[in-house]
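anyone seen this seq b4? input:
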Amino acid sequence: MQRNRNIRKVIQEPKALEHNSNVYRRADKRTFVRKTHARPAQVATAKTIELVNAAQPEPSTVYYSRVEKIFEGETIYIIGGGPSLVNFDFRQLVGCKTIAINKAILFHRADVCYWTDGRFYTWFKNEVDNYTGLKYALKPGSQYTKDIQVLRKGKAYGLEKDPSTLAHGFNSGYAAINLAYHLGAKRIILLGYDMGNDGSLGHFHDGYPTRAIGDKIYKDKFMPSFKQLSVDMKKENVMVLNASPYSKLNVFPKITLEQALSFR
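predicted toks r here
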């Protein structure tokens, strides 16, 4: 038999914890006032961060140039990048009117430097900036210096007669012929216009920081555009001669390098 027990719950006040410390706190009656500091005004910031090394966009305003006929009636040599120029002595072109396409400017101080692909300027900015000749490009660039003259991109095939426009033919070599026409050339000699890539050697130099153009691109995209250009140049009484001995570009009469240099 269980007995009823009255259980009384005793609640004791908690005792202060005793700290074994030799630090004695001063018993003064200080009061602390909590102060709320005003938050600084929030400034709206962009959610995107501009990367200095990122590709630069094209400028919103483009000022196109006009090519003057400064070489009227002259023979102009256009230096391409084909391997037929391996071991060529570029000193033989000193005194000639010359246009260097892309990286050819590193091998000969031409009168004119031309490029279509804006990446060329990105890759070789220092070299182009230090070059003191005329500079022409087909596409605007936000990092271009003031001495780079931008021309309008015209039709793909044929010849553009407007001196502010170039027919492009999908390649720099094509547009450079149109540029030589605007400069007043009576005769144009093509150097390094091999127009092919057999997989062994694509340029007379070490190429560019990108995959080399395949032979199919030359055959299907680049070379077909030259046929109409050759017709139009004949109508303008401008002689175009191809001094690449094994060039696949057959719409212009072929000559040897020795014959080409005889026009100096």
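The radius of gyration is 37 Å. The longest strand covers residues 75-79. kinda curious what u guys think
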